[in-house]
Amino acid sequence: MELILVRHPRPLAADGICYGRSDLAVAPDELARVHAALLEAQLPANVPVFASPLQRCAGLAALLSPQVRFDANLMEMDFGAWERRSWNDIPRAEVDAWAADLLHYRPGGGETVLEVAQRVSAAMDVILRSGHPQAIVICHAGTIRLLATLAQGLLLHEAALAAAAAPHRIGYGEVLRLDTASGCQDAPIPL
Questions:
Q1: How far apart are CA 157 and CA 169, in angstroms?
Q2: pLDDT per residue over 93-133, tens digit each?
Q3: Pairing outcome for strands 175-179 and 134-139
Q4: Residues 151-171: what's their mean pLDDT?
Q5: pLDDT value of residue 184
Q6: Contact 43, 64 (CB under 8 A)
Q7: Is 52 exposed, middle or buried (0-12, 13-18, 19+ CB in 10 A)?
Q8: What is the H or E stretch that residue 7 is in?
Q9: Helix (H) or strand (E) holding 138
């Protein structure tokens, strides 16, 4: 199956803010810009659309299909008390503790990376079982990195570590194609 992974448009948040699970809106002009870019990218028609229910994904998904399959397992990581705080205001000791234990540390008391990988893996199973040759998935950068590492056939904890340790380079509205049968992308997913 080919997964056409689309990162949501830029949400209304200041630069440098931690906003994983926070449900942030998107400015109408930003939503229109990304939607126009996706139309130019010639996404296939009549392909099922799966999306995170967070509004920065849901609005774009609704423009692409009247029958979106929303899945909470596609949501970004829950950063607990870190949500909507400036990364600079989060105590360095807490960030270092997370970096020292990427799989099991709960940033801000939220989710562990392993828990996120478990739910993203469950979402991927649902998408793959849909039986379609292609699917469009509107989600988040962390979710995209996890889907890419899971498609490589890595064990769950290996995929979680690979996705968490990789620098974030996926742009807002960026489209990435992933062949789940081979684990290959049409272009390298910028992990």
A1: 22
A2: 999 999 999 999 999 999 999 999 999 999 999 999 999 99
A3: unpaired
A4: 90
A5: 61
A6: yes
A7: buried
A8: strand 2-7
A9: strand 134-139
- Rounded to whole angstroms, how far apart are CA atoms 31 and 16? 21
E-state strands within the chain: 2-7, 17-18, 49-51, 69-70, 85-86, 134-139, 175-179, 184-185
Of 20-34, 37-51, 129-143, give the lowest mean pLDDT range: 37-51
Distance of alpha carbon 153 from alpha carbon 158, whole angstroms: 9
SS3 108: helix
Give the span between the Cα atoms of 62 and 186, in whole angstroms.
26
DSSP letter (8 states) at residue 26: B
Q: To the nearest 10°, the Cα dihedral for 162, 140, 167, 29? A: 170
The letter for the amino acid at 45 is A
What average pLDDT does the segment 60-88 reach?
A: 97
- Residue given tokens 């950068």 in the structure block: 141
Residue the block writes with tokens 């926070």: 22
Task: Say which amino acid occupies 30.
Answer: E
